[in-house]
Amino acid sequence: MIAVLRRLGSTVLVLLGVSLIVFLLLQLVPGDPARAVLGAGATQESLAAVRAQLGLDKPLAVQFLDYLGGLLRGDFGRSLTVNQDVSQLLLPRLENTLVLTGAALLVCLVVGIPLGILAARHQYGLFDRISMFVALAGACVPVYWFGLVLVGVLGLSLDLLPTSGMYNSRNPGGFEDLLAHLVLPAFTAALVPLAVIARMSRSVFVDVLQQDYIRTLRASGLSEASILWRHGLRNALPPIVNIVGLQVGYLLGGVIFVEVVFGWPGLGQQLYTSITQRDLPVVQAGVLFVAVAFVLVNLLADAAVGVLDPRSRRAVRA
């Protein structure tokens, strides 16, 4: 219980720090939010009135405290460009981002973990060398470049899959239409975390397969498949779950580029638009949403590791 309270306390501090850093960094972005509201032809008097209305004429410390007070009340402010409540603007887009993140995570788990396990099983063999070379190359490729390649080859040249949006704008086709639009952005977003998960899974499984109990199981005549997937995986899961938790955080941040490339109507695309328009309330709330999701995912990963590996709970108590 004490460990949980300690972790929750550190989570609050992390979110407070993220809020402060984002608030200060956005003050350095060139441009005037009041001019973004009124346009280039606004007079100095109208600009001053809007700055006073938005509280931009107050000292930075007072602006930050007002921002924190609004967060505690569940008030994220209003968008400067569309004059809409920020939470109403972002929550539907956050749902779309979570759909894309979940699909990319599924690709990572279905492909990355088995790839790492099989590479460890054939350590230093041809499959191991080729698969890990491909994984290393995938981890080094910029996601936006990979996305553009997929759009050019599978979308435009071969015309196999849609390249933009979440549904067909002319004739939405329900779940099947969503799946078709998910394929390219999900595989693009999964590229780097899949490579990391595959390489780390291989490293973990190489250590597991060298343990004495694995040799004992092999000597007893147990099949290799049973040794790998029943006994080896059980002991390799805690570090793999930790790795996956970190990569989910990467996915939540990395889908920003993917959403822009594929026109996916998610949080990342909205953040990109709001940054270019210097819509500070939307950017602050969007980054905070991503930070909260990242922290919650890692809390769940830590809890899962505690369930899978009781030794980690004893270490925390100690």
Task: Describe the protein in words.
By secondary structure, this protein is mostly helical. The protein has a domain at 86-143 and 186-317: MetI-like fold (Orthogonal Bundle), CATH 1.10.3720.10. The protein has helices spanning 2-27, 33-38, 44-54, 60-72, 86-121, 126-140, 143-157, 174-209, 212-219, 224-262, 267-276, 280-308, 310-317. α6 (126-140) crosses α8 (174-209), α7 crosses α10 (224-262) and α10 (224-262) runs antiparallel to α12 (280-308). The radius of gyration is 24 Å and the shape is globular. It starts with a helix and ends with a helix. The model is unreliable at 314-318 (pLDDT under 50).
Sequence-ordered SSE layout with sheet pairings:
Elements: H1 2-27, H2 33-38, H3 44-54, H4 60-72, H5 86-121, H6 126-140, H7 143-157, H8 174-209, H9 212-219, H10 224-262, H11 267-276, H12 280-308, H13 310-317
Helix pairs in contact: 1-12, 5-6, 5-8, 5-10, 5-12, 6-8, 7-8, 7-10, 8-10, 10-11, 10-12, 11-12, 12-13
